[in-house]
Amino acid sequence: MSDTAKYAQYSTLSPALAVGDDEPDRNLALELVRVTEAAAIAGGHWVGFGDKNKADGAAVDAMRSLLSTVHFNGVVVIGEGEKDEAPMLYNGERVGDGSGPECDVAVDPIDGTRLTALGINNALAVLAVAERGTMFDPSAVFYMEKLVTGPEAADMVDLRLPVKQNLHLIAKAKGKKVNQINVMILDRDRHRPLVQEIRDAGARTRFLMDGDVAGAIAAAREGTDIDALMGIGGTPEGIVAACAIKSLGGVIQGRLWPTSDEEKQKALDAGHDLDRVLSTNDLVTSDNCYFAATGITDGDLLRGVRYHGGKVLTQSIVMRSKSGTIRVVDGEHQAHKWESYARLS
């Protein structure tokens, strides 16, 4: 069935039939945007001030506050806690108003805290929600090797193939020359050999200082001039991105990358095969999931928070995989009312 036919069939269902009481419904989308807007506005106050901890703390407080009003019974399965030693939005924390569907929740109040502190592009507030028990449990393995590309090459690439071969497959699928392929990659010393492989294959590199959610989405979304994301990045960010890619099409593939013997043992004790390549559907098994993000600083995906007199302007994106719907939301907020409402003052 084509995407058009799928949507037509979906949209003819009455609300009572389109969703059940036990699964997230389409009205959840705007509620999630309100949450990421709150986190972005709170974190946005700290853009360029050089203190990533204060920025992150403000965004966490705001996201947690607004999450408590959302109509669902959520459990944080990808949170701030263990990796960032945060006291809130930790794995296992209950969020939402306690009514409605049971959901897995993945949060990243600021994807790119250093970007925020330094006023550099591509910082986002992000949130993903799926039906309960459908998000991958990384068992405290905080990093994974990733490959992301759009729908054209989704069925052709394989993380186990040589980099050069994957790049040629992507180029062929997109009808490009290899030297026209742009690959996003985190700017890390560990990626020096990968950068050389990409360049030796004839492709171009585009570096991200921090946070690869925006890069993953750009690699899967049309019109961004980004053809792939490669390299080792956060496992939580990979699961969040998978929720978006469920709506966008394309693919994310990942392989767990423990950074210590302790992490490796945790993964093995949990039954993970560290050689296994995880696909989009492994990272999020539900076909009814949501992704929402609001820009904190300007970037490839969204504009950042802006101020005009007493107004705060935001730009967000929200996606729902069940209908394949993607919406870009421009928000205009009265600063004094918003801060009181969101309990940010």
From TrEMBL:
<protein>
    <recommendedName>
        <fullName>Fructose-1,6-bisphosphatase</fullName>
    </recommendedName>
</protein>
<dbReference type="InterPro" id="IPR004464">
    <property type="entry name" value="FBPase_class-2/SBPase"/>
</dbReference>
<dbReference type="GO" id="GO:0042132">
    <property type="term" value="F:fructose 1,6-bisphosphate 1-phosphatase activity"/>
</dbReference>
<feature type="binding site">
    <location>
        <position position="234"/>
    </location>
    <ligand>
        <name>substrate</name>
    </ligand>
</feature>
<feature type="binding site">
    <location>
        <begin position="210"/>
        <end position="212"/>
    </location>
    <ligand>
        <name>substrate</name>
    </ligand>
</feature>
<comment type="similarity">
    <text>Belongs to the FBPase class 2 family.</text>
</comment>
<feature type="binding site">
    <location>
        <position position="56"/>
    </location>
    <ligand>
        <name>Mn(2+) 1</name>
    </ligand>
</feature>
<keyword id="KW-0119">Carbohydrate metabolism</keyword>
<keyword id="KW-0378">Hydrolase</keyword>
<feature type="binding site">
    <location>
        <position position="237"/>
    </location>
    <ligand>
        <name>Mn(2+) 2</name>
    </ligand>
</feature>
<dbReference type="GO" id="GO:0030388">
    <property type="term" value="P:fructose 1,6-bisphosphate metabolic process"/>
</dbReference>
<feature type="binding site">
    <location>
        <position position="143"/>
    </location>
    <ligand>
        <name>substrate</name>
    </ligand>
</feature>
<dbReference type="GO" id="GO:0005829">
    <property type="term" value="C:cytosol"/>
</dbReference>
<dbReference type="GO" id="GO:0046872">
    <property type="term" value="F:metal ion binding"/>
</dbReference>
<feature type="binding site">
    <location>
        <position position="108"/>
    </location>
    <ligand>
        <name>Mn(2+) 2</name>
    </ligand>
</feature>
<keyword id="KW-0479">Metal-binding</keyword>
<feature type="binding site">
    <location>
        <begin position="111"/>
        <end position="113"/>
    </location>
    <ligand>
        <name>substrate</name>
    </ligand>
</feature>
<keyword id="KW-0464">Manganese</keyword>
<feature type="binding site">
    <location>
        <begin position="188"/>
        <end position="190"/>
    </location>
    <ligand>
        <name>substrate</name>
    </ligand>
</feature>
<dbReference type="Pfam" id="PF03320">
    <property type="entry name" value="FBPase_glpX"/>
</dbReference>
<dbReference type="GO" id="GO:0006071">
    <property type="term" value="P:glycerol metabolic process"/>
</dbReference>
<feature type="binding site">
    <location>
        <position position="80"/>
    </location>
    <ligand>
        <name>Mn(2+) 1</name>
    </ligand>
</feature>
<comment type="pathway">
    <text>Carbohydrate biosynthesis; gluconeogenesis.</text>
</comment>
<feature type="binding site">
    <location>
        <position position="111"/>
    </location>
    <ligand>
        <name>Mn(2+) 2</name>
    </ligand>
</feature>
<dbReference type="GO" id="GO:0006094">
    <property type="term" value="P:gluconeogenesis"/>
</dbReference>
